[in-house]
Design goal:
By secondary structure, the protein is of the alpha/beta class. The protein contains eight helices and nine strands. It has a single domain, classed as 3-Layer(aba) Sandwich (Rossmann fold), CATH 3.40.50. The strands form two sheets. Strands 3-2-1-4-5-6-9 form a seven-stranded parallel sheet, sandwiched between helices. It has a two-stranded parallel ribbon with strand order 7-8. The model has no long low-confidence stretch (mean pLDDT 93).
């Protein structure tokens, strides 16, 4: 992967930051797209601003995908695309507002769509490329309070399979679907919880613990480089969902 260019959405924090680091450690250059410019600039600086790039913007805006494509083209074109950006609001069905539901679908599903549409045709024309879309265990496993999130991630899986069929034989499109992962967001969610909810989540995992962001990043890196794998979803969840 030396000097290959990876375009990564949502790479400033948490899982995305671990993915960015994994690619950088493998020798790749990383172009991170993120909404928070301050956090984005900090991530790029930490990776090494002499080799890596950042672009501030909301992936739910198709113009941001086009801007990312044009920036990538200025630096030789994308070899890899990782669609990781996502939002995770929690609310029971009766409490979800129209605005919340639309925002989840716009970022999680349409953001993936926009970036695939922007980048894959050029990969096909070049004759090579690899896309990894980040799904979720929630796309398969029903969980209360995350119906719209689950729908968005199930959509990402189905979209991945169809686009993989369209993109062969030289461009591969796959999905990595993490289970519960210890990120900043999860830490904050359970910081003041004294109900034992975190332990309950861990106890539901056959391997006995919540995953680490670096473990998901390893799976993304594998799928990015798996030469005879396309249209697949790799479930990385400690055995909580066995598919």
């Amino acid at each position: 992967m030396q000097d290959k260019l990876v375009v990564l959405t949502g790479g400033s924090l948490g899982l995305g930051r671990a993915i960015a680091q994994a690619f950088a450690d493998a020798g790749a250059r990383v172009l991170i797209i993120g909404r928070n410019k301050e956090k984005l600039d900090a991530a790029v600086k930490e990776l090494g601003a002499d080799r890596h790039l950042g672009l501030a913007g909301d992936v739910g805006d198709s113009a941001v995908a086009q801007a990312a494509f044009e920036l990538a083209q200025e630096h030789g074109g994308a070899d890899y695309l990782v669609n990781n950006a996502g939002i995770f609001p929690q609310a029971m069905l009766a409490d979800i507002t129209d605005e919340e539901a639309a925002a989840v679908m716009q970022v999680n599903f349409f953001g993936t769509f926009y970036f695939c549409r922007a980048f894959i045709p050029a990969m096909i024309e070049k004759g090579e490329g690899s896309v990894v879309n980040v799904g979720s265990i929630a796309g398969r496993e029903p969980t209360q309070g995350v119906a719209i999130y689950s729908a968005s991630k199930a959509g990402v899986e189905g979209f991945t399979r169809s686009i993989a069929l369209e993109s062969g034989p030289r461009v591969r499109v796959n999905c990595v679907a993490p289970g519960p992962v210890m990120t900043e967001g999860i830490s904050e969610m359970f910081a003041d919880d004294d109900t034992g909810a975190l332990a309950q989540v861990s106890n539901g995992v056959p391997l006995g613990r919540i995953g680490e962001a670096e473990e998901i990043a390893e799976a993304v890196l594998y799928m990015a480089n798996a030469k005879w794998v396309t249209g697949q979803t790799l479930h990385v969840n400690g055995g909580r969902l066995m598919a």
